[in-house]
């Protein structure tokens, strides 16, 4: 029997090799002396523990063999063509860092930084320069300067205080371009590359030490190397790149077949691990930009709670059912054996969209509970309406109420958008059911001031709106959330038990006040009651409401993730720039930083293309898809994102006319070679290897119905949502990002 530890690969294993690698390790776990494995030591290696093993006739695995008493433990570093594997094996060393206790593999010689200018892309036959009306624009960058030098960092301090490899540090300081910097990082151990990224973003040494748990280690010269390695495997920064598989073939298979997209299942960043495993004396909020791994932390935390408290009732929820399904799939990949609950209130993990949770509570309520809830929310004791009011019908009801009653409100107040927000952020959360109560209620957080006369007119319209819905037995999702809150409050007031011990919330920036009231009632106020993942930069649905209003205290228990795992640095810079100048604030009104986000990945610059007409823009899109297909890009991993629903069919039909097949998001599974066209809203929570933001013109963004005829304060917030929507769409791209428009570009692109 042999034990195995897997070291995260810089080079992914392609599909054809996965089965061979698995077969090799399955045999190794059973008997490492089997002759077919050809486990062989090296001649004059840098590390005497290094071995190579035979994957097939052309490829060899590079391994390190460590003996724990009499049990062999193999550390798998990777598989390469024969000669390359031999060279890598001879120059690689497995060691425990003497400064911080992190286990790492260091290659004795690091290649010199490349300083030559990349060659210009050659034109294809018949290709012409860009013309007006069909222009290509690559966002230009300023002359690059090495940030480590600019911040005044000293190479010796990085070696002494952080434990960075001296040779790697020398090459980093010698880098003359961003490409050089990333080339050096690509050869560095995972934790060192992350530390260098943080340094390049301006993070101080002390903060990096805290994030990566690099303090407090004391090298014990009396300990054997084997014992040091065993202890180092438990270091959080080691776990970024090393995962212990042991002799379990199923776990090994999961790691091998997981691939790059599922690497988070086994390799957590130390900072992510801290937030996933630490206990908190109350509610906690984890914020961070798109792709920083908030959902990953949430899933690992759900697992930790379930394993440490087998009888606990855990609710894992998010804004939509689609996102909830994604959480369920992710949790299954993380640990298929975790106990699940079919309904909230029972031991195990229950996963569902927040509105689905609301519906469960209401459908499980008694007739008495429902009538009392209606009395508390609407002032009338009756049964809960049976029809859900959708957004379009709600807008129609507001407009009908505005037109049918007598009032003296100016157009920006006698407006469906303003009135609905007033209703959902002031009236419903305060459980107001009478005119007198509305006239005196504080309107904290509402940007537009109202005198008594205006409040009277607004209440007249709200009363009419409620009356129309009552007659038609309609109830909105927001109203249902408040009714469910009232039901839960009744139960606890009568001594009943809350439905959950722990509530974990993803995409919380999109929740409204009614959701927060409901979630607060799901669990008692106690340690680890609510764990909230949020990114205010992605707020495209919810309203800005401070959690403290709902009895959720997070002061002193709030942290931010900054390292992006999805998007390249180039795409990330572009997406963040779309928010420039916007007054982004978080749930508690604090300023959201628009800098400090870094990516561990690099790629091509985003491209912007203008076209003279919609047909020309379709030609541009078709050209990109054809080019990518010819380059071997899997088009099923390409997303074409538009602002409005009506654009989806037009793009699909337009591509069909140009000989290309595309599908809509409503078509279930991916089909090889077929890209997906969907709205930006629908793309939330998804990712693609390449993304085209199509139709980003001044006519599409910002959407006119969102920003027209509303009060200035409400317009500012609506414009912010449109910016956030564009940011969300741009951050769906892992590698390539293209932005196109016909006519004039959207003002949100920030062009002069």
TrEMBL record:
Broad EC category: isomerase
Keyword hit for Glycoprotein: no
InterPro entries: DNA_helicase_UvrD-like_C, DNA_helicase_UvrD/REP, P-loop_NTPase, UvrD-like_ATP-bd
Biased composition (Basic and acidic residues): 120-140
Name by which UniProt lists this protein: DNA 3'-5' helicase
Keywords of the record: ATP-binding, Helicase, Hydrolase, Isomerase, Nucleotide-binding
Catalytic activity: Couples ATP hydrolysis with the unwinding of duplex DNA by translocating in the 3'-5' direction; ATP + H2O = ADP + phosphate + H(+)
Record-linked PROSITE patterns: UVRD_HELICASE_ATP_BIND
Pfam annotation, one family: UvrD-helicase
Coiled coil location: none
Entry keyword Iron-sulfur: no
Domain UvrD-like helicase ATP-binding: 267-568
A single GO molecular function term of this UniProt record: helicase activity
Binding residues annotated for ATP, in chain numbering: 288-295
Disordered: region residues: 107-143
Superkingdom: Bacteria
Enzyme Commission number(s) of this protein: 5.6.2.4
